[in-house]
Amino acid sequence: MRSAILFFVFLILNFAALWVGQIFTGGGVVSDWYDKMNIAPWTPPGWVFGVAWTSIMVTYAAWLMAVWKKLDNPLLFISIYTLQWVLNVSWNPFFFYWHETAWALLILTLLLLVVWFSLIRFRKEIGLQTIWILPYAIWLIIAFSLNAYIVLYN
Question: 56, CA 20 to 30 Å: which among 15, 64, 72, 137?
Fold first, then answer.
């Protein structure tokens, strides 16, 4: 029971990040600004982003729960998670609201580093359950490539 509650707390926090980020996306991908951009040829269709982020936040919640249950001192974990949350939320307004694609790329780079640091730092504590953070870590590499393409070709 405690694991289920913990999982849902992390799930709520993760989806809250997506919700806050979505507020700043606004018209986002259907805006004239985005529509006129040169986007990477490997950019997936819009619906893929929703499916990907939903899946990522579910698997990330499972990873967070697994790590939390193994911690003696959660301060580092909470600090890393908070930084990850803030960076994740920050990308949307920089990219879609302010159209600061280079700053968004910097934020995404930091987010990528934080998530990969988390994966490496806590892998020993949870072993095979590290697999639950891989969708997030891999998706951020893809997102980085898409954002970098936009910075380079616009």
Answer: 72
* pTM of the full structure: 0.91
The per-residue pLDDT for range 88-102, each reduced to its tens digit, is: 999 999 999 899 999
What residues have CB less than 8 Å from 113, skipping those under 6 apart? Answer: none
What tokens does 136 get? 């997030």
The CATH class, in words, for 2-153 is mainly alpha
CA-to-CA separations, 42 to 51, 81, 135, 144, in angstroms, rounded: 17, 30, 18, 12
DSSP E strand stretches across the chain:
none
Domain boundaries, the chain: 2-153
| Residue 73, helix vs strand vs coil | coil
For residue 88, CA distances in Å to 21, 71, 82, 85, 112 come to 8, 24, 10, 5, 10
3-state helix, strand, coil in the chain (%, to 5): 85, 0, 15
Tokens 């700043």 locate to: 24
